[in-house]
Amino acid sequence: MGALFDEIQAGASEEKSKIGAIRSTLAGIGSGIFKIPEGIFSLGASLIDLGADTNTAASVEEFFAKINPFDEAAEATTAGKIAELIVNIGVPGGIAFKAGNNLAKVAIAGKKSGRYLDPAQDLSNYLKQINLQNLMNLQ
Length: 139
Fold this sequence. Notes:
single chain, 139 residues, 87% helix
């Protein structure tokens, strides 16, 4: 049994050694792009599993494992793993940063023009208006 395991392990490491760093890095970029929607769908499936006590997340992960052609080559070297991680985190993070930056610009422009939402001030004005109406009704 031990000899069979050693033979399988040697074959796997020999296959991984055939994949170069450049190929693995490029595969890491492709695999990272595949992993972005995989993460979104896995999160949704995990929430369904949590609420409905199903096993949806495992089937979603299995599906994406079948359709990702770059995964094995990306996992062959550290460079591929790092490239996959950078793409998987960097692309959605960059999109979120850009959206946050645009929201901040709109908020600053609204504050400068006096159209910025101030819930405390709006509530205070509303309560004053209600109080004045109640006083007028009492007289």
